[in-house]
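Researcher: Please predict.
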Amino acid sequence: MAEKVDGTSFQKRVLENGRLSLIDFYSDSCVPCKRMAPVLAELEEELTEEFGDQVFVGKVNVAWNSELAAKYHVLSAPTFLFLKDGKEVGRLGGVQPKLVLEMAVRENL
């Protein structure tokens, strides 16, 4: 399951981890976010099998971390950010097929 990160842990767990990070900005009350949760969990398992620890998958609750959402200009949930070496390298919004998320990971590794 994707690790929940917040304003306190984001710097170390995401920006300074030395690997590609796929971060799901979500809300507990968001129906599309709930639809994406099992897709993200399945994708994380497959990425771990294939790439080991080269990819970090995390989740940020926008309701409890509005400063992070504002910093990354997240205006709707779900929003998927791809970060590498502390910089945003990709972004997808809304419900996405697992294949689209997987292709974005592969493009940014």
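Model: Residues 31-51 form the longest helix (21 residues).
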